[in-house]
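User: quick one, sequence for these tokens?
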């Protein structure tokens, strides 16, 4: 089959469509010029390589000669990888939400040659069914409208564009601790008290909700907030949404019990879920949560890591054209691999046919099952899970070895700066909390890859690397997530070069992305391609928003540096989004984590001493294994020189020295400093003092 114009692209998603009979163009002036020249509207299709329904729409329609002929005749057709061009996706997803009150992928937009939309939808079937108009009927109708009622189409597109550009809200004066309480009450109301998570099916991981709840528990002592996090993370780990054989989380659960997932595995889910388990381990000390985080890291380092250190995007839901085929089992397969005793043990714990049939999931073939454990009601379930994991270790390895021989799902081997930033941050935090040098090494390799392959000669970040080439100007998420990673790497290694680099990237954010009029940051830099609008986002969706992380990063950097101007910049971000957060706080829980930091108590810990001394390690271990979220840690080494690099970034640390030859901790909370201490217990008492 001949190739279309996508054949020279780098994106795995675009390359998947390179042999479609649809005459696809990549996003670019060539396509828009053709549309203007031939007086045709544009059919814009946005998706990503591991999207199940994107595959379905391709197989049904884009590989179909009849549909392709209609599309080619009526439209100029453009394919976009949302992971490669999140700026384009942000603009047109907002349009879809305005027009349909919903969104998702595949995203389908019909628009004029000057990029003004007049139709939006997600998945569209090939033929009309169940009240949903199919492409075979829709395309001729749109073609007729374009030719005979052009003025109406143009009028509709102008109205939609005006709605897109309309300000979303007025500025609010101020928000404070009350909004944290309101967010907690709202999450409590939507919490599934039996199975964990929020709302009904489908259920998404939403780890930023859990980050917020842990901070709320720390602030208020509200035991229910901690229980909500524990019950959610226990049941997700026990469910089919977790790969019980090979580790790592699938994208989301189609049912309320976390049993039947959409099977794609995304890098960002692994990073954020690992961070959630790490923080829950810090809060509770329960071994189960450390084990869960370590398993996620094992999966990522084994299956999603490039030989040069960067992390791949995702693994597909489908293999051999069937969603989930790689992950499901039959009893016969289990018994052919394991001994009778092992089979009986595994099947008694991990097969619950009644759970599957209760969901009415036709996607799971008869006789097959998704390995999962019975849900937990909380309490001490974690201990039994740890014991079971140990007992099942050899069984799991045998099943994993057999599963490895199956046809694997497609792997999207793009390397994205923003998602790598999340993974680096999680690994760096894991290195600290678990005292695990392997994680620090992996995080440092990945960051070196970013510097070598995703940075321009001028020092600006790029968004995507694939097939030997870095490309596409970085967006706010790239910068915010990489700065977060660098701050975590500094606290994992105390190498000041990470702070220097974080400040350099932060200056790029202020220089290229800042909204000088209304505050906050635009999604794209001021010298990027001009789209229909320049989006500015705060909503914490599948991943936290760049503005939420920028708020937290700016607060942390102001504490690291003691720079009052940096603190004012953080306050600017806060003021820009007060109204949105006040109106619907649970849509912005990562931003609320920043607000929790800003309100305080927040602490700075300066540790002065020699890195390889045992008393230094004792202080750091106490700090790192405890949940003290609104704390920054600076190490002032005494073994290097009279004026170590940290004093350039943080001049205020200069007077701090060890006392009586012992490593010493200096603690300041809410702008008040305590007497220094050499004692880890006293240090933690001071940090936890209300």
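Assistant:
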């Amino acid at each position: 089959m001949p190739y279309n114009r996508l054949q020279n692209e780098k994106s795995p998603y675009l390359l998947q469509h390179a042999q479609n009979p649809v005459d696809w163009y990549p996003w670019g002036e060539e396509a828009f010029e053709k549309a203007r020249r031939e007086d045709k509207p544009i059919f814009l299709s946005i998706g990503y390589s591991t999207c199940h329904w994107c595959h379905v729409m391709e197989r049904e329609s884009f590989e179909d000669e009849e549909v392709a002929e209609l599309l080619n005749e009526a439209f100029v057709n453009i394919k976009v990888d949302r992971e490669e061009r999140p700026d384009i996706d942000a603009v047109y997803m907002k349009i879809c939400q305005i027009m349909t009150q919903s969104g998702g992928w595949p995203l389908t937009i019909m628009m004029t040659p000057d990029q003004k939309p007049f139709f939006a939808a997600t998945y569209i079937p090939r033929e009309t069914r169940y009240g949903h108009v199919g492409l075979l009927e829709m395309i001729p109708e749109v073609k007729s409208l374009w030719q005979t009622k052009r003025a109406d189409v143009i009028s509709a597109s102008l109205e939609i564009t005006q709605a897109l550009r309309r300000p979303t809200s007025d500025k609010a004066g101020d928000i404070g601790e009350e909004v944290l309480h309101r967010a907690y009450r709202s999450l409590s109301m939507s919490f599934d008290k039996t199975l964990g998570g929020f709302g009904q099916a489908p259920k998404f991981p939403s780890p930023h909700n859990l980050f917020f709840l842990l901070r709320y528990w720390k602030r208020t002592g509200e035991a229910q907030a901690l229980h909500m996090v524990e019950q959610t993370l226990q049941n997700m780990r026990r469910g089919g949404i977790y790969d019980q054989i090979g580790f790592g989380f699938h994208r989301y659960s189609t049912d309320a019990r976390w049993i039947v997932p959409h099977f794609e595995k995304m890098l960002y889910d692994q990073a954020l879920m690992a961070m959630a388990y790490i923080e829950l381990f810090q809060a509770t000390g329960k071994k189960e949560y450390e084990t869960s985080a370590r398993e996620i890291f094992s999966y990522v380092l084994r299956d999603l890591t490039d030989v040069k250190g960067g992390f791949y995007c995702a693994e597909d839901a489908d293999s051999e054209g069937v969603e989930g085929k790689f992950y499901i089992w039959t009893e016969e397969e289990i018994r052919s691999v394991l001994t009778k005793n092992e089979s009986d043990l595994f099947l008694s714990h991990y097969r619950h046919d009644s759970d599957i049939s209760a969901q009415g999931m036709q996607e799971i073939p008869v006789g097959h099952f998704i390995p999962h454990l019975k849900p937990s009601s909380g309490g001490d379930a974690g201990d039994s899970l740890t014991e079971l994991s140990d007992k099942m270790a050899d069984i799991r390895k045998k099943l994993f070895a057999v599963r490895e021989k199956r046809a694997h799902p497609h792997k999207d081997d793009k390397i994205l700066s923003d998602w790598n930033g999340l993974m680096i941050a999680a690994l760096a935090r894991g290195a600290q909390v678990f005292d695990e040098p392997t994680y620090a090494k992996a995080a440092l390799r990945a960051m070196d890859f970013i510097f070598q392959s995703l940075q321009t000669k001028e020092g600006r970040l790029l968004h995507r690397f694939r097939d030997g080439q870095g490309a596409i100007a970085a967006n706010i998420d790239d910068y915010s997530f990489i700065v977060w990673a660098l701050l975590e790497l500094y606290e994992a290694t105390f190498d000041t070069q990470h702070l220097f680099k974080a400040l350099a990237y932060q200056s790029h954010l202020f220089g290229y992305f800042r909204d000088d009029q209304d505050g906050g940051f635009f999604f794209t830099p001021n010298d990027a391609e001009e789209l229909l609008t320049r989006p500015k986002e705060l909503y914490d969706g599948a991943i936290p928003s760049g503005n939420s992380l920028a708020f937290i990063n700016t607060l942390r950097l102001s504490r690291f540096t003691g720079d009052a101007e940096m603190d004012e910049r953080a306050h600017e971000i806060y003021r820009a989004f007060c109204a949105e957060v006040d109106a619907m706080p649970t849509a912005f829980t990562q931003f609320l984590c920043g607000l929790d930091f800003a309100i305080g108590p927040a602490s700075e810990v300066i540790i002065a001493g020699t890195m390889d001394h045992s008393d230094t390690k004792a202080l750091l271990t106490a700090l790192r294994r405890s949940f003290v979220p609104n704390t920054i840690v600076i190490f002032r080494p005494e073994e290097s020189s009279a004026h170590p690099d940290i004093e350039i970034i943080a001049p205020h640390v200069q007077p701090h020295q060890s006392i009586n030859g012992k490593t010493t901790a200096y603690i300041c909370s809410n702008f008040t400093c305590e007497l220094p201490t050499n004692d880890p217990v006293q240090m933690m008492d001071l940090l936890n003092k209300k």
